[in-house]
């Protein structure tokens, strides 16, 4: 399995009450899995544990056969090869779309960086917006730039945390179909969390339901397309 999450337990502030209880999940390479659960069920926490922003009290996570965290291992966030898109896009307001995307490409030479920025802008159909600042773009356009920024360093795993919740309903429907096409085009393994069944159905290959920090009765829905 490309992603292997095994027996993960976690509580905030070393509290006695765990929020994540023996969470297990396996994901194949190239699969888009949606974690569906109501607000407060622990979805964002799972993404934070995956990306290394939180450390589990128990359990382990491996990506592509490499152990990221266990009782004896901790790979820091910047070494995990994970791209993230958040609910609020989190673009830097004082940087243009192009500069926002380029920001994450530190390891490359200037010429390669510029080429990669053009490439991902084209992927999300936003080439003509390179010089725009976030406040000069619509919510949907900002969201596409946030996606381009996450994809630019060629991560092996893409995490999306309720990426549509700030968009109006009509745009939401348009963007999620678009997003699925873009993700499938790159072939990148993705985990997409949401509280919205329709979003899950539109975007995911497989839906995993989460309830109070556990995958509820391990039931998954395999979508046929
Ligand atoms: N930084 C934090 N400190 C303490 N408790 C938190 C923190 N972040 C989230 N929680 C709690 O953890 C639980 C799961 O939160 P979260 O993972 O954000 O859920 P979801 O993303 O599914 O809405 C909630 O009960 C929330 O109140
Ligand atoms: Mg959340």
Topology record:
Elements: E1 3-10, E2 20-27, E3 32-36, H1 43-51, E4 58-63, E5 66-69, E6 82-85, H2 97-103, H3 110-123, H4 139-151, E7 157-161, H5 169-186, E8 189-194, H6 197-203, E9 206-211, E10 214-222
Parallel strand pairs: 3-8, 3-9, 6-7, 7-8
Antiparallel strand pairs: 1-2, 1-4, 4-5, 9-10
Helix pairs in contact: 2-4, 3-4
This protein binds adenosine-5'-diphosphate and magnesium ion (MG).
Structural features, described:
The chain has 225 residues and is α/β, with parallel strands linked by helices. Helices cover 30% and strands 27% of the residues. It contains 6 helices and 10 strands. The protein has helices spanning 43-51, 97-103, 110-123, 139-151, 169-186, 197-203, and strands spanning 3-10, 20-27, 32-36, 58-63, 66-69, 82-85, 157-161, 189-194, 206-211, 214-222. The longest helix is centred in the C-terminal third of the chain and has 18 residues, at 169-186. The protein is globular. The structure holds adenosine-5'-diphosphate and magnesium ion. Residues 12-13, 19, 37, 39-45 line the site of adenosine-5'-diphosphate. Adenosine-5'-diphosphate (ADP) is lined by residues 12-13, 19, 37, 39-45. It catalyses: a quaternary ammonium(out) + ATP + H2O = a quaternary ammonium(in) + ADP + phosphate + H(+).
């Amino acid at each position: 399995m490309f992603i292997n999450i095994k027996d993960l337990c976690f509580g905030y502030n070393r509290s006695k009450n765990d929020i994540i209880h023996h969470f297990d999940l396996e994901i194949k390479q190239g699969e888009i899995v949606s974690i569906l659960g109501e607000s407060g069920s622990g979805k964002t926490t799972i993404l934070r544990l995956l990306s290394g922003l939180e450390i589990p009290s128990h359990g382990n996570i491996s990506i592509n056969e490499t152990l990221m965290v266990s009782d004896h291992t901790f790979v820091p966030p910047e070494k995990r090869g994970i791209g993230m898109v958040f609910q609020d896009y989190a673009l830097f307001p004082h940087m243009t779309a192009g500069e926002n995307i380029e920001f994450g490409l530190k390891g490359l030479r200037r010429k390669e960086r510029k080429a990669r920025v053009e490439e991902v802008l084209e992927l999300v159909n936003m080439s003509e917006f390179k010089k725009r600042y976030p406040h000069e773009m619509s919510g949907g356009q900002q969201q596409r730039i946030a996606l381009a920024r996450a994809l630019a360093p060629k991560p092996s795993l893409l995490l999306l945390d309720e990426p549509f919740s700030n968009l109006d309903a009509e745009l939401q429907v348009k963007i999620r179909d678009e997003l699925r096409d873009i993700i499938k085009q790159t072939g990148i393994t993705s985990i997409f969390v949401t509280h919205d069944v329709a979003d899950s159905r539109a975007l995911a290959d497989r839906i995993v339901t989460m309830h109070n920090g556990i995958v509820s009765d391990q039931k998954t829905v395999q979508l046929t397309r």
